[in-house]
Amino acid sequence: MDNSTKNRILDEALIMFAENGYRGTNLRNLAAQLGLSKSALYKHYESKEAIWNALLDKMEAYYASRFGSADNLPKMPDSCEELIALTTQQISFTIHDPQIILTRKLLLTEQFHDQRVCRLATKHFLEGTANIYKKIFETMMEKGLLRKGDPAMLAFSYTAPVSALVHLCDREPERKAEAMERIHQFVSYFVMSNAERP
């Protein structure tokens, strides 16, 4: 029961923090939204900062377990087609998962006010995904599936345009289908352009 209530608190806090920011969210409103008294809320978390930090921990673990991380790499592709399929699956998750959408919104708005959020934004929007793909490209180069080159630069070149199109989906959700089509076209072109020729 305790874990269930704690998770309900964090789920609702994610919505409120993403919509109102850290400063614009107060615990009285959070408790009311959950049907709890403020004192009941304090039985689970001693402060707004404790909720905030628990939420960031939860979302970081959630993303790493479903998308991947440097410590939790996805299965290495055995072909260029598998690389395209992996990328498409990861991007679809990123664009459609409601918790990830809210987390991205929270990171975007709070990155200028909180050092930890700033580091997480850099990790999720730039370095983390590029590091995953650096490892993937290194492995694929070793297998002779991609042309030899600088895997870090290749990963940066691969992930930066995709990240920009993901942010387009957040700003203009009505363009999600268009963005996904452009991502698919870009990924296919990029991978086939860098495939090792027999």
Task: Tell me what you see in this structure.
76% of the residues lie in helices and 0% in strands. With 198 residues, it is mainly α. Helix 5 packs antiparallel against helix 9 (176-194). The longest helix has 28 residues, at 115-142. The chain starts with a helix and ends with a helix. The model has no long low-confidence stretch (mean pLDDT 92).
The SSE string, one letter per element, is: HHHHHHHHH
- Give me the secondary-structure category: mainly alpha
Query: Percentage of helical residues?
Result: over 70%
Q: Using the CA coordinates, give the radius of gyration.
A: 19 Å
Helix count, DSSP H or I runs of 4 or more residues: 9
Report mean pLDDT, rounded to a whole number: 92
What is the fold's blueprint, element by element?
Elements: H1 2-20, H2 27-34, H3 38-44, H4 48-66, H5 80-96, H6 98-110, H7 115-142, H8 151-171, H9 176-194
Helix pairs in contact: 1-2, 1-4, 1-6, 5-9, 6-7, 7-8, 8-9
Give a short overview.
The chain is an all-alpha fold.
Main traits of this protein?
198 residues; 76% helix; 0% strand
